[in-house]
Amino acid sequence: MKSKFYASALCAATLIATPAMAADQELYFYNWSEYIPNEVLEDFTK
After folding, report:
1. pLDDT class for 19, splitting at 50, 70, 90?
2. Residue 25: CA atoms inside 13 Å, Cβ hemisphere, count?
3. May I ask which residue range the UniProt record assigns to the signal sequence (predicted)?
4. By CB atoms within 10 Å of each CB, which of 13, 26, 37, 40 scores lowest?
């Protein structure tokens, strides 16, 4: 019974961790010029 629990927990942990490891290190930032000035976006990308 314990081995089924540990096997299930290992499978769940693997499925949860796999997308996190495959994610790109990119941030998509959508800006509307009337809300946030473009200078803030330029400073943010530095």
Report:
1. low
2. 0
3. 1-22
4. 26
